[in-house]
Amino acid sequence: MKLAVILLSLIVYVSASAYPQISYDFSPYGYLTKYGIPEAERIREAEEKILTNGRITGGSPASTGQFKYQAGLLSEITGIPDRRGICGASLVSPNRLLTAAHCWFDGQNQAWRLTVVLGSNFLNFGGTRILTSDVLMHPLWFPLLVRNDIAVIRLPNNVPLSDTIGTVALPVGLLSIQTFENEVGTASGFGITADGAGISNDQFLSFVSMNILSRNDCSRAFPLQATAATLCTRTVGGTSTCRGDSGGPLVVQRYGNPVLVGITSFGLAFGCQLGYPAAFVRVTSYLSFINENL
């Protein structure tokens, strides 16, 4: 599983001792049409094959209820009828979710309605499905440099919590001042599982564990984009987040319970398996914004 990839021709040169000098794009301009819609269509086709064949090949998806807080988002985009984009989100209360701002407005495309999918490993079948157009983006969301890429989704009613639907804790108290450096974080999402691949039959809800980097390492990897509000993870052995995972959760464990520390935001535009860090919104940097809108 890899990261929601973001495009707009920013060329950054990084020290060769840390990461290779390469050209890469980060801006979320056009994410919904370039990646969100194609990945949503591939997932729909793969899910239909699974339900027809009655089997899963190539591995096992996340088990039902393993990530109770994980939501899938299918976005309807203004001016693009009959096509939907894909993102992820995290349920933080019975009627609030957190996602990436570029899942709602990517600088070029504006979504006008979301289908929030909870309690299912399939995006297009099963689970609880809720329509909403009530999305609050951070007021300082700036797509060009991927600043403040966070939004709150408000549901019209409380969703019933169950064995397959639950909330994830926010990093409050002493957790609010931690950096989580060198801890292992777990990211989950419905995105693609390999560069150049379609949606595989074990695709639907996948997860990966990655090491959380220091702020200095994050800044070296993304000198123009990373700020104190960015959290980065180290990809190992081709494992990371990728197209379709945008807005999804990165959690760490505390006393056996998941705590939301990151929201999938950006990474390399031309590939997710190159060993380059993945970047997330650092949740502790936005607790005031989140709490004001819960």
TrEMBL record:
Query: Does the keyword field hold Hydrolase?
Result: yes
The UniProt entry, under InterPro entries, shows:
Peptidase_S1, Peptidase_S1_PA, Peptidase_S1_PA_chymotrypsin, Peptidase_S1A, Trypsin_dom, TRYPSIN_HIS, TRYPSIN_SER
Put simply, this protein is called Peptidase S1 domain-containing protein
Matching SMART domains, A to Z?
Tryp_SPc (SM00020)
List GO BP terms, alphabetically: proteolysis
Give the residue range of the signal peptide.
1-16
Gene Ontology MF terms in the entry: serine-type endopeptidase activity
Record's superkingdom?
Eukaryota
So what family is this one in?
Answer: Belongs to the peptidase S1 family.
Q: Which UniProt keywords apply?
A: Disulfide bond, Hydrolase, Protease, Serine protease, Signal
The Peptidase S1 domain is annotated at 56-294
